[in-house]
Design goal:
Length: 499
């Protein structure tokens, strides 16, 4: 206890999770720690839903976080506790609540969310920590997310001290909070490993109204191991990077790398293990399993991020080996890990997942058939717009070939054609830099589309070109593939075939 709560006055504020959940009142706005299933609060959300089940004293809250929580997102959504949710989520039950209109979901670029919360009223912050310092400073666990803003803004703070998180996490965080808008000075990160803040989130001890001791581990990520197709995509990207080095646009250690969430992005990073590149640096938000595989194979010299999101076996390995990794690791608040200024300065190579892309290079990362949210934009937009090289990856088809991920027009735009340099599917790679829209269309159709859909895309593009324009389209047909899938369950089956 003394090591974990170093401010002796605060030791008297230890509560049970059930006592702590009584601070959560109907209608409150609550900021919680947690970013892509890691470093999230666990004991208090569980106690809250248990209490609601037992007493039927239901409460609805505005729930803000860094990004997705672990199981807590599911518990809170299925118990109908969440009225408003922001920013990124990835939980099936939350997704269902959002798509049926019950949860009001606000998607924000992750770097923007801190600025928005800074202007919001936050009633209560609940933050998972390894320890509290003598002066009340909160030392986060496996993610930082938006916790510094929540602690700054909230009237009251409750801390969950997680005893399953090793004390060797202390020292890996770098908490820098930009102040004094609009007179801010440049963010002083010119190298991936630069430290510019404190190893804890500053907090007035008087604000800490309760401390709950817990030992629940982070919910493991559900990442799927690389398969033949994702490995193929990784190879295309490695060939591209080798080409960039030969052309003198990148050095042999490349530029700092970012990878998004998801199986494909993780597989691409795994592919770097067998690459000729060494001394790699990572400037990202989420560190998935592959980052630590790259550490273990000696490929990476330093990684800066906002969270670890790991499978169960990798989580256990990383937490028990932290003394070995900690000199090469940093966790930052998401407004810094995703800050446009820093991403642009470092010339990051950004690799993110797409649901679908269109023939001109617009990318949909978030909405199935343009309406139903999958996960949220997360930080993909922060990186896509500001990176030195912006790459999106997707398999060329989904749902056993019934959906083409290369379509005439994306049904929802997250990343415009102006933000996208390179697209990759298992069919090939399309380098769009310097190409006009019509050149882009030809390259995307020929290099990326699955053979099942290539002729139909060629046909659409040729007929659109007859109508003219810089970016030719047939507006009455542009979204017909999505409509066909909705009606017939297959993008290749016309609606008339069902009549
Ligand atoms: O559905 O789960 O029902 O099987 O989408 O698809 O191919 O497994 O791809 O795991 O790499 O995720 C865009 C979602 C890709 C992810 C996305 C269906 C497919 C499957 C997943 P099932 P895959 P991945 C960093 C940056 C946005 C946020 C981001 C993502 C499921 O990369 O969330 O990058 N990105 N943030 O069947 C309908 C299509 C489809 C489709 C695939 N065209 N239409 N469904 N699917 N293509 C992290 C943060 O910022 C926090």
């Amino acid at each position: 206890m003394q090591q974990r709560i170093r401010n002796h006055l605060l030791r008297s504020r230890v509560l049970t999770a059930d006592e702590a959940q009584t601070f959560i009142q109907d209608g409150m706005t609550i900021g919680v720690s947690g970013f892509t299933r890691s470093g999230d609060v666990k004991a208090i959300p569980r106690a809250l839903v248990d209490n609601i089940r037992k007493t039927e004293n239901s409460r609805q809250i505005h729930l803000y976080s860094g990004a997705s929580l672990g199981d807590a997102d599911s518990w809170l959504s299925t118990q109908h506790v969440v009225d408003r949710r922001s920013p990124y989520q990835s939980d099936p039950d939350t997704r269902q609540g959002i798509n049926c209109g019950e949860i009001r979901y606000i998607e924000q670029h992750l770097s923007h969310s801190a600025e928005w919360f800074r202007n919001e009223h936050i009633d209560l912050a609940i933050i998972e920590a390894v320890a509290i310092t003598e002066n009340g400073g909160i030392i986060p666990t496996t993610s930082v997310g938006n916790s510094p803003v929540f602690v700054q803004k909230a009237k009251q703070v409750i801390v969950e001290i997680n005893l399953s998180m090793p004390e060797s996490l202390i020292g890996i965080h770098d908490i820098y909070i930009p102040e004094n808008r609009p007179f801010r000075t440049p963010i002083g990160i010119t190298h991936v490993a630069d430290r510019i803040g404190t190893p804890y989130i500053p907090c007035d001890p008087n604000k800490i109204v309760g401390i709950v001791m817990t030992d629940d581990p982070d919910s493991p990520s559900k990442i799927v191991a690389p398969d033949e197709e994702t490995q193929q995509m990784a190879e295309y990207i490695l060939e591209l990077l080798s080409h960039e080095v030969k052309q003198g646009r990148l050095s042999a250690k490349l530029a700092p790398l970012q990878s998004g969430v998801g199986s494909v992005a993780n597989a691409v990073f795994s592919g770097l293990e067998k690459s000729p590149f060494n001394q790699l640096e990572i400037y990202t938000e989420v560190m998935q399993d592959a980052v630590f595989q790259l550490f273990d194979s000696g490929k990476v010299s330093f990684a800066s991020g906002c969270s670890f999101t790991l499978s169960e076996s990798m989580r256990d390995h990383v937490l028990s080996s932290l003394p070995r990794y900690r000199k090469q690791l940093l966790l930052r608040p998401q407004e810094i890990s995703n800050h446009p200024e820093v991403i642009r300065r470092l010339g990051v190579i950004a690799i993110n997942g797409a649901l679908e892309v269109d023939i001109y290079g617009n990318v949909n990362s978030t909405h199935v058939r343009g309406t139903h949210v999958m996960n949220g934009i997360g930080g993909s937009g922060d990186f896509a717009r500001n990176a030195g090289l912006t790459i999106f990856v997707t398999k060329s088809t989904a749902k056993n070939g019934r959906i083409s991920s290369v379509v005439p027009f994306v049904s929802h735009v997250d990343h415009t054609e102006h933000d996208v340099d390179i697209l990759v599917t298992e069919q090939g790679i399309a380098d769009l830099r310097g190409l006009s829209p019509r050149e882009r269309a030809k390259t995307i159709i020929e290099n990326l589309a699955h053979p099942l859909y290539k002729d139909a895309l060629r046909d659409y593009f040729e007929r659109a070109c007859v109508q003219g324009g810089n970016t030719p389209h047939l507006l009455d047909e542009a979204l017909s593939w999505h409509h066909q899938f909705k009606e017939t369950g297959d993008m290749r089956k016309p609606v008339s075939a069902m009549m």
